[in-house]
């Protein structure tokens, strides 16, 4: 308890130091910077602005209320991270849910780690910390990866090292951004999973992609069922539809017709290019099966 009180008192002391214009800290080399940067400081919520680089764009209200209730009972257990913008002015790097929940219950201050960073460093810090520590949806993660690659100008290989993810994992997320915007929205809202999205990427025709997406929702298809549907899909742009169909020899066609007539059943005949084939004889029940069997055996 003594340590917690001492730490809290230290935070309040640093807060006073930061409010002294004569000791304003602008860089890590300034006087007293070592006492503030990287330490927990109680900052006024009114002095902190939201980070425009935050990859999360939506916050579940019910989840925020639950977090607010927890903070009201136990306090902010994990400090937020901010960067110093100017005198008594800060910007969130990570911890926006804790920040919003604290404001929700009317707190005036919040424990904060202070960093000194430029815009590019702040963007990278925010994106990397959120990817690793927040429960982002797959599209938010993909957009974060894309922003890091484009705005920080890193390769997928370098990004793999920075975020501790395999390059193939990063590539799989980035591919999700090729999906139709409606499908992306469905994934963000939790209607479909990343597995569904990865299956749909293989359907290039946007209309067909949306058709299959609609069936996933209406029929509650699993990822495996979706993958099977995509494989079976025959559209004008798919390689499967462009493949030349095997021409059925006339003797096979005639034999099929005769079997249908003799067995009084809708016999299906398939044949491969090598001449090998397959007969399918459907039946409606036990009696129909016995009838077909007796016909083949030549019995009444």
Intertermini distance: 95 Å
Query: Care to count the β-strands?
Result: 7
Order of helices and strands: HHEEHEEHEHHHHHHHHHHEEH
Treating each run of at least 4 consecutive H or I residues as one helix, how many helices? Answer: 15
Classification by helices and strands: alpha/beta
Strand line-up in the sheet with most strands = 1-5-3-4-2
Major sheet characteristics: 5 strands, mixed
Please give the share of residues in helix: 40-55%
CATH topology (fold) name of the largest domain: Conserved hypothetical protein from pyrococcus furiosus pfu- 392566-001, ParB domain
Radius of gyration: 32 Å
Give the overall silhouette: elongated
Number of domains: 3
The CATH class of the largest domain: Alpha Beta
Mean pLDDT: 78
- CATH architecture descriptor of the largest domain: Alpha-Beta Complex
- Contiguous uncertain segments of 5+ residues: 1-11, 235-244
């Amino acid at each position: 308890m003594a340590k917690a009180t001492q730490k809290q008192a230290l935070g309040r002391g640093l807060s006073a130091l930061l409010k002294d214009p004569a000791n304003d800290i602008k860089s890590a080399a300034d006087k007293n910077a070592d006492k503030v940067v990287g330490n927990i400081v109680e900052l006024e919520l009114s002095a902190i602005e939201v980070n425009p680089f935050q990859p999360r764009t939506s916050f579940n209200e019910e989840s925020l209320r639950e977090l607010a209730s927890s903070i009201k009972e136990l306090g902010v257990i994990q400090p937020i991270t901010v960067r110093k913008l100017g005198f008594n002015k800060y910007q969130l790097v990570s911890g926006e849910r804790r920040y919003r929940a604290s404001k929700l219950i009317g707190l005036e201050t919040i424990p904060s780690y202070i960093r000194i960073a430029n815009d590019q460093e702040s963007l990278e810090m925010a994106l990397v910390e959120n990817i690793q520590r927040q429960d982002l949806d797959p599209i938010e993660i993909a957009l974060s990866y894309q922003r890091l690659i484009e705005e920080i100008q890193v390769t997928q290989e370098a990004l793999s090292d920075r975020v501790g993810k395999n390059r193939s994992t990063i590539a799989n997320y980035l591919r999700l951004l090729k999906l139709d915007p409606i499908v992306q929205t469905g994934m963000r809202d939790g209607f479909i999973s990343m597995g569904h999205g990865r299956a749909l990427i293989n359907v290039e025709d946007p209309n067909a992609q949306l058709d299959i997406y609609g069936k996933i929702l209406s029929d509650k298809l699993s990822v495996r069922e979706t993958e099977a549907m995509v494989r079976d899909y025959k559209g004008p742009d798919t390689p499967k539809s462009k493949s030349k169909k095997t021409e059925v020899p006339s003797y096979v066609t005639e034999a099929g017709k005769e079997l249908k007539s003799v067995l009084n059943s809708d016999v299906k005949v398939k044949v491969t290019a090598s001449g090998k084939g397959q007969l399918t004889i459907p039946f409606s029940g036990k009696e129909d099966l016995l009838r077909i069997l007796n016909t083949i055996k030549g019995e009444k």
